Amino acid sequence: MAPAIVLVEPQLGENIGFAARAMGNFGLGDLRLVAPRDGWPNEKACAAAAVAEPIASGAKVFETVAAALADCNYVVAATARPREMVKPVFSPETAAVGLRKRAQSGERCAVMFGGERNGLDNDSIALADAILTAPVDPGCASLSLPQAVLLFSYEWMKGGNPEGLGRITSFDGPAREGLATPGTGPATRASLFGLFDHMEGALDAAGFLRPPEKRPAMVRSIRNMFHRMACTEQDVRTWRGIIAALTRHSAASKG
Amino acid sequence: MAPAIVLVEPQLGENIGFAARAMGNFGLGDLRLVAPRDGWPNEKACAAAAVAEPIASGAKVFETVAAALADCNYVVAATARPREMVKPVFSPETAAVGLRKRAQSGERCAVMFGGERNGLDNDSIALADAILTAPVDPGCASLSLPQAVLLFSYEWMKGGNPEGLGRITSFDGPAREGLATPGTGPATRASLFGLFDHMEGALDAAGFLRPPEKRPAMVRSIRNMFHRMACTEQDVRTWRGIIAALTRHSAASKG
Where does the record place the tRNA/rRNA methyltransferase SpoU type domain (chains A, B) (predicted)? Predict the structure, then answer.
């Protein structure tokens, strides 16, 4: 079961909503609030959550940190510095990997974040098993509350080896890393060599590949540009069309 | 040189500020804006940037995408779906690793993000070398503009193998992954075995480790609890104090 996100004494409704949206973007849904400053429900939170509005409106509210954590087996506290606590310290990535293993063993886990002004107090951190701290520029270390929630949520999703990237729509499947070649595919060498013949023939006819002693190096250079382009079959057809059009235009001009 | 972040037709000043803060958190500083809707400078942007206000107020403004990218050698466009483009697709992590290598070779790079409403249009994406897409829940895939900037910025910082985590203050050095043991250190086995003797002696005297045939298993169980606790030297002293206090209290009660 995916970990709960516990916001302790959050102040701005917008930030609660932005945090809910970050959770939704990365497959988390259990949002818990401890004593939100402006009460609950909060219209600004639901508006800021945008597509994740159900996560914001479904947040559970508790009076104390202990009550919010009562059903959890393992709790990580997010803080920008480990304070004077003897506790394991995790980066977002390591925390996410560890929490995924615990979740797979049936443990209910939570990640706890403090309010905007001061973060978690030491008594709240003392109720957690471990500390979560992000790698930041030490001179500009203060993450906003929703940004901190996002980092953990993103690493949670990454650790689940998602099958794709980005949005899936009725006309787009999930994206994958690597060269996207929608509706076409990488060109075969035969297509590419055909293009080379076409191009080099046209350039010879135009008198471009001169003087003869420089021709081999010029040809290699042009071929290498085409290789770096990683042409698809469609690209090869496009280039053949370009060469034919330029050749015709040139012939017509002369005529 | 660290990559520039280019926001194309951003709408809300707050989001420009939040993006600037995310950049500052992770060591980026070159913010470029193409035709921001509400003009520039923008007070809301500078306020939202918080600690990264200098990044927001130092943003460079351009009229066109082409002008904003003119000095760049390599450009990545962030979009939730690769559209009908034949382009390499990178996750934030892969993009950050690749851009770091290019930066180390002296290339000037940029990562380009679209406005809140529709993201980048196809003509802007066609000015980029590659596409950046995050692993998201496909049912809730819409990242906010500052959250999208944060993911790339975070991976950029991670790829630089930062030396520590979190904030550095006058009284805290950088945190590191692993067990934080401020002012103390992991206990030696000798200290721990001394604690075991103390504890087991007190429990024998109190008649807890009975019946005798169950004593070995009870002792192993208690010792294992202490091992899982990963005691520091200070923890061992604390436990010895606890045992002594409870023993005294018990003796006093009986007396």
Answer: 4-154
